[in-house]
Amino acid sequence: LRLELHDLADEIRRLAHRMHPSILDHLGLSAALFALARELRASGVDVSVDSRLGAEPVPAAVATCLYRVAQEALRNVAKHAAVTRATLQLRAEADGLALEVEDRGAGFDLTRPAANAGLGLTSLAERVRLLDGRLSVRSRVGHGTRVTAWIPLADQRA
Fold first, then answer.
1. Closest Cα to residue 58, out of 107, 18, 34, 93?
2. Does the model's pTM come out above 0.70?
């Protein structure tokens, strides 16, 4: 019983880390995205990360939201895309931050009901919308998927 409790405690710690990794608070969004990419390599997907952030710190709510988008999109790549490579790009724009995850894998038909059945992308769209942002998912069977999130910064810093 004691060993089982210890294993359960370890699993809860791992789950809490996945929910909100401390690196996000301590080193920022870019570092957290690089760490996420390293974690994904263990599942066989090499993620190239291109982070182009300005000097201004990213508000916590925006950083957490964009991290969640990257996490879910990359989880979907590992689970469904049948590829060994993906790209993740984070860039500062004049009025906000944009994050894009792209693969050239299996893709899917966005018009099929099964494509919208999961909670992952639905909950991400809601999370992004709550910050007045936009989430876009583009996919074609056999041509891969691109998930793009954009969140304005002006409203978040006020």
1. 93
2. yes
71-109 pLDDT, tens digit per residue, is 999 988 888 878 889 999 999 987 899 999 999 888 887
Q: How many CA atoms lie within 13 A of 119 on its CB side?
A: 0
Q: Buried b vs exposed e over 56-94: b needs ≥16 C-beta within 10 Å?
A: eebbeebbbbbbbbbbbbbbbbbeebebeebbbbbebee
DSSP-assigned letter for residue 113: G
Residues 6+ apart with CB under 8 A from 152: 95, 96, 131, 132, 133
The stretches of the chain forming alpha helices (DSSP H) are: 2-19, 22-26, 29-41, 60-76, 119-130, 154-157
Contact 90, 50 (CB under 8 A): yes
State both tokens at 94: 């004049």
**Distance between CA atoms of residues 4 and 109, nearest Å:** 43
